UniProtKB/TrEMBL annotation:
One of its GO terms (biological process) is ceramide biosynthetic process. It comes from Cupressus gigantea. GO terms for molecular function: ceramide cholinephosphotransferase activity; sphingomyelin synthase activity. Pfam families: PAP2_C. This is Putative sphingomyelin synthetase family protein. Its main location: membrane. It is a multi-pass membrane protein. Residues 279-346 form the Sphingomyelin synthase-like domain. GO terms for cellular component: endoplasmic reticulum membrane; Golgi membrane; plasma membrane. The chain crosses the membrane at residues 71-96, 138-159, 329-351, 404-426.
Length: 430
């Protein structure tokens, strides 16, 4: 009976994930049904987690994962701030005039999907065009996976899984920043920068000297290769605007505001940075696809089966939409897929929490082996259960009280639900 109950709970995770994606898609085809069903689904999922939390037997195991979780969260937030600043920088560096005139790169993936639109049945093309899933869906799917540890759908600790996910995400974002800062590529949507950024029309003074003179004259490039020095005359450009941003003044050279009026309040630098969104250069590789792939990898490892296969189908659907809608070039999505897979596998080799846990349990088993055998000989089942519970829920130092664990459980549930709500709100627009 217990085994069948666990089996039903494991199957229920896949159904819950499918319901979440399906109900959220109703906003496209039936907003009234979406407005009715989505709050009810969120309420059911939240209440299920809250009601199950007091009976979850592995809170002491979760407690050991708090520091890695908080460290990974901080690392990810720092890399996201660095990424947002870098995204704005690569757009502001060249100025709006360059973005308006730079031609998109030739992309065989875009051509392929245009050709398929003419060959495939209309229904298939409509399915390919449909916005089935977005960035916030993948984040919510991972959150559901991590919370499912409460129902024994995945192995504890859930905070450990979350820590690894955020750490891998942070490393991937850091590598992405290094990649797109190395070579600036034109956007597949030439109008994007003018619509979303308030930056000067002219390039940064650095580029006025080192890029503009050589951008369109092959003879100047030959001269540069011969001399290996930049001696070309610099054109006449407007002076850079330097608003009063106080301690954040160092960001002026990075964000390049187009007007000093923006500095009227103390948060203007943040308002300028907030407009970045996803950027308007081609940012190789795709951050959206990295999130999608890491979510699919987490599901594949922790909860293999038809649900994981379905999520990989959604990843492929997202890939072709990113290319079809010209949010990214094909190379950005392809690189994001194999970088995400390799990162998840590689970090797993160095993510020692699981191996340390196994080593600790083996050491503790060796310590209690004699007492365990004696309790078994004495048919003292209560003693055997007590020792096995201590083995499966080891905590270094003094064992926390039940009240302390329940308090910790409440903090984790509230904090995790808060993160989920914040992520959903900030990423709902893509």
């Amino acid at each position: 009976m217990a085994i069948s109950g666990v089996s039903r709970l494991r199957g229920g995770l896949g159904i819950a994930a499918l319901c979440y994606v399906g109900i959220d898609y109703l906003r496209r085809i039936s907003p009234s049904w979406h407005a009715t069903l989505q709050p009810k689904l969120w309420l059911v999922l939240a209440l299920a987690a809250i009601c199950r939390a007091p009976f979850y037997p592995h809170w002491s195991t979760e407690l050991r994962s708090v520091l890695p979780f908080l460290g990974s969260l901080l690392f990810m937030l720092v890399t996201l701030a660095l990424e947002a600043t870098s995204v704005h920088f690569v757009t502001a560096l060249l100025g709006l005039d360059w973005h308006r005139t730079a031609l998109p790169l030739p992309d065989t993936g875009q051509w392929l999907f245009l050709a398929l639109n003419e060959k495939l049945p209309t229904v298939v093309v409509q399915v390919l065009r449909a916005p089935l899933i977005g960035l916030h869906h993948y984040l919510m799917l991972f959150l559901m996976l991590a919370f499912s540890v409460l129902f024994d759908c995945v192995k504890a600790p859930g905070l450990g899984l979350g820590a690894r996910y955020m750490f891998t995400m942070a490393v991937g974002r850091l590598l992405r920043v290094i990649t797109f800062l190395s070579t600036i590529l034109p956007s597949a949507r030439p109008w994007c920068a003018s619509a979303r950024f308030e930056i000067p029309n002219h390039p940064h003074p650095w580029l006025q000297k080192y890029y503009v003179p050589y951008a369109s004259d092959p003879n100047m490039i030959r001269q540069l290769l011969q001399e290996d020095m930049s001696n070309a005359p610099i054109g006449d450009y407007p002076a850079e605007i330097i608003p009063e941003w106080g301690r954040m003044k160092f960001l002026v050279n990075i964000l390049r505001p187009s007007s000093a009026v923006l500095s009227g309040d103390g948060t203007s630098w943040f308002s300028t940075l907030k407009r970045t969104g996803g950027g308007c250069n081609d940012l190789i590789y795709s951050g959206h696809m990295l999130v999608a792939v890491l979510t699919a990898m987490a599901w594949t490892e922790a909860y293999p089966g038809w649900t994981s296969a379905g999520i990989w189908f959604l990843v492929l659907h997202s890939t072709q939409r990113e290319i079809r809608e010209r949010h990214h070039y094909s190379v950005d999505c392809i690189v994001a897929i194999y970088v995400g897979i390799l990162l998840w596998r590689t970090i797993n080799l160095f993510w020692s929490a699981k191996d340390q846990s196994k080593t600790l349990r083996l050491e503790q088993l060796a310590q209690i082996e004699g007492r365990l055998v004696q309790a078994a000989k004495d048919a003292d089942l209560d003693k055997v259960r007590e020792m096995l519970y201590e083995l499966n829920n080891p905590v270094q130092g003094q064992n926390p009280t039940k009240q302390a664990l329940l308090g910790f459980a409440a903090i984790v549930i509230i904090f995790s639900l808060g993160i989920g709500l914040l992520a959903f709100t900030l990423t709902a627009d893509g």
